[in-house]
Amino acid sequence: MKLDATDIRYIGNDEFRVLTATEMGSKNHEVVPTSLIAQISGLRNGGVNKILGSLARRNLVARVQNTSYDGYRLTYGGYDYLALRTLSKRDSVLSVGNQIGVGKESDIYIVADGAGKEMVLKIHRLGRTSFRAIKSKRDYLGKRKSASWMYMSRLSAQREWAFMKVLHENGFPVPTPIDQARHVIVMEFIDAYPLRQITSVPHPGKLYSSLMDLIVRFAQAGLIHGDFNEFNILIHRVTSEPIVIDFPQMVSTSHENAEFYFNRDVECIRTFFKRRFNYESNLYPRFQKTIDSKDDGDGEGFRLDVVVAASGFKKQDLQALEEVRWWINNVTLRIV
Known about the structure:
Layout: H1 13-25, E1 32-33, H2 34-41, H3 45-57, E2 61-63, E3 71-74, H4 76-89, E4 95-102, E5 106-112, E6 118-124, H5 132-137, H6 148-169, E7 177-181, E8 184-188, E9 192-194, H7 204-220, E10 223-224, E11 233-236, E12 242-244, E13 251-252, H8 258-277, H9 287-298, H10 304-309, H11 315-330, H12 332-335
Antiparallel strand pairs: 1-3, 2-3, 4-5, 5-6, 6-8, 7-8, 9-11, 10-13, 11-12
Helix pairs in contact: 1-2, 1-3, 7-8
């Protein structure tokens, strides 16, 4: 869905209390009873009914028909508003501009703070309409069916935020992370082109080597990007240096499929350079050699995958996130 922040200025404190109450009730209810929303929000039942009607007209909540009781569920629009409200209270984001990107798992917008500084807002949206059929194949959260896609989107954003922070703090060429709330991340706006839009470069061999060196550097720090391709690499407009984006799918070099993901990242770059720039090299990194060089003391000196794993992610949450991404990447095309 497309973010429309026009109405957020007209949403008052009571409306946000009801939205928050609906979100809280969604932890244990697929359809949140109106009485529970009233109880959590602390507002009188009649007032809550009126507010819910107003929120439903704005598509921030949805009334679910054919249930044994009167109830509502939070929509992605409502979830967006709750995240933007949090960012606004922190003075991180005060205005929303044009959409500049869309993918199967996220939407990208230009936003600004109170000083007019432009930034990038990334909204994680696991479980778009075309992927709803996946849910019927498997429930990734056991009894927590109601909030599964929003919960997974929140996990995805938190994980990307953790990776972006630790990579930025350790000198990797990634956007500067600015803030994160629920399923939303705010990051630095970089004046750059996606690699996929570039038709020629003065020295393809130099860029090829830089990208392969990045893959090696990630691995020597204990990480594999997992989706290292022309869609997730930016080329700075002034310096022509590569910047890497999109980190939720990163895995540790200790992952059981680490060599597969490493080799896939390498092959994506080799294939793109051969197709786009007619450049091919017999020199490319090998997983085992890279890992061995790290173990010999040539790596970063500590493991960033350990740092990220210590950032509050539970093992079962990481497993669920990996599973849902596997389904998105491998099953959705057949479903659609």
